[in-house]
Design brief:
Oligomer: single chain
Strand content: 25-35%
Number of domains: 1
CATH topology: Nuclear Transport Factor 2, Chain: A
Number of strands: 6
Amino acid sequence: MTKSDVKQAPFTLDNDVTKTETTRAVVDAMVNGLNDHDISGMGRFFDERFRWIGNTGCGFKDGLQEFQDNWQRPFQAAFSEKVCTDEVRIAEGEWMAAFGRQNAKHTGEFMGIAPTGQDVEIRYMDFWKVVDGKIVDNWVMVDFPHVLKQLGRDVFNGEGWEKNDSKAVQHPVTPLK
């Protein structure tokens, strides 16, 4: 097999582009629910069998109950006063992607760090698949190294490649025109 033979984007081959507005509406309402801290009401947005597929440190949550018990509630306990801001959203058919940040207060234990009361920024990227008006899959990347650094723990021990950057960049970075 050559590199040009690798199948690209297999998950979107059957994407129904007529579903774009439904997908946008479901994700918009879900994010509003998250900002209202309505964990028990998330079933109106997520299919019971949905999968939450996170990066290392976040894990894989199989089903709504596991997502609520092993992500949403612990996350809310560690970071209260959380407000989610999607800075970019792109939707096509049954798929929607976003990146953004959550601003929160560190009020519970997180990765072995006792509550500091410190305000933190939690960066993320999400890809959602919506079928029949419910989220069935959610691929997630949460920038836990950035959160940990704000709390005084550098997981890269000063060896992160940003040490070679020409300048420090503060988030959010506004797009170039």
